[in-house]
Amino acid sequence: MRERHGADYAHVYAAHFDELAATGTDVHGEVAFLRPLLGDGARVLDAGCGTGRVAQRLAEEGYDVTGVDADPAMVDVARERAPGVTWVVSDLADLDLATTFELVVMAGNVVPFVEADLDAVCARLSAHLAPRGLLVCGYGLDADHLPEGALEVPFATYDAACSAAGLHLVGHHAGWEGQGYDNGGYSLSVHVRPDPEDDPDNRTGDDAGS
Fold first, then answer.
1. Which of 22, 92, 181, 203 has its CA 20 to 30 A from that of 86?
2. Which domains, from first to last, does the chain contain?
3. Closest residue by Cα to residue 145 from 173, 109, 177
4. Under a CB-based contact definition with an 8 Å cutoff, are residues 124 and 92 in contact?
């Protein structure tokens, strides 16, 4: 379960990125990475959305976005900033939205905060992916790339949880700029939920011979 903060922290957290943007810093690197993976109007789930920075930008670009976070204060700020986006308060390990998405993104070091429930989180996110849908996750692997006090979760641990949830690794990068993973302290991975129709072992009758 992700740590919950009060309203003051949520506003300070959102203001931090506003201040960065005001200095000319690009605070939307995640969206730049995701854009080539998305079709027009694609359905996107921002899992662990915080105050909604990523989800809001995606919605502004025309995607059908839902943001979910366990922290009600964070979601309240997100809703204030982007009332047209669908916002949900829920632990990711218990998520049940009764719909699927073409892409699920976990940015902002979500994995270390849900480490105790990682298998359940990955299973629930997989269940919310459409066939051939993508789970994109970026998080720090060491103290230099994590908030103070956050747990270090090896990529192998996260990848194993994804595999147990039926997802396959199709890309591994060192950051949102898309550079190849170099055994450094930050991991950005892309996992896919396979479409059973793509597996020839699942074909029968005429399909098997086509």
1. 22
2. 28-209 (3.40.50.150)
3. 109
4. yes
pLDDT band at 7 (very low <50, low <70, confident <90, very high): low
The predicted-structure confidence for 52-77, as pLDDT tens digits, reads as follows: 999 999 999 999 999 999 999 999 99
Torsion angle, alpha carbons of 65, 25, 71, 140, to 10: 100
What is the pLDDT averaged over residues 162-189? 97
SS3 31: helix
Angle at 26 between CA 21 and CA 27, to 5 degrees: 70
Residue environment code for 76-85, b if the CB has 16+ CB neighbours within 10 A, otherwise e? bbbbeebeeb
3-state secondary structure of 50: coil
